[in-house]
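Q: I have 190 residues here and want to know how they pack in 3D. Can you give me a structure?
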Amino acid sequence: RGFTMLELIVVIAIIAILAGLLLPVLTTARRNARNSAARQALQAIVMALEKYRDDFREYPPESEFGDANADPAGSKAMAEYLCKRHLHGEAIFGPYLTNVESRLVGDATTKQLISPLGTTYRYGLVSTADAAAPGGQRVINFMLVDPGLDGKFGGTVDNATGFTTSNSDDDNDGNMDDLDNLYSTPIVTP
């Protein structure tokens, strides 16, 4: 009338095998979704930085919150300059990023914009020569880096070269720390 013990064990074994096969697939899909969300967030910040530059004719300063390579510096700059309104003369500009309240952490003095991966951004201004400009005029651009899933930065933001990797593996997982970083621009030097 009912299932025998052997039939129940077979059904449980089949369910366990299926769960074992699906778990890695689900984990990979979740990791890919988080990476995709981080890339989209990075692109939204890039567009917000460009809108900021359109209004103020320059990118936000990088040094107000400390060294660009320090953990919270870039995230604090993004929260301050892109997520607030700014009074400039009689005009009000911003906020340039909206719907990011869930990613803003800290109180009013230590507010930071956190990546969807839970990491802090690195932000720096990069000055490069423009060969097409008269006299090789310097062009100011920005470099925004998200440390990625492992949270390890693996390099430095430099004003002349952009992001320079340190070729380090601080967490000894066999992967270089900069491999999963997400960059706002392709200015990356080996």
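Q: Anything worth noting?
A: The two ends are 70 Å apart (CA to CA). The chain has two helices and ten strands.
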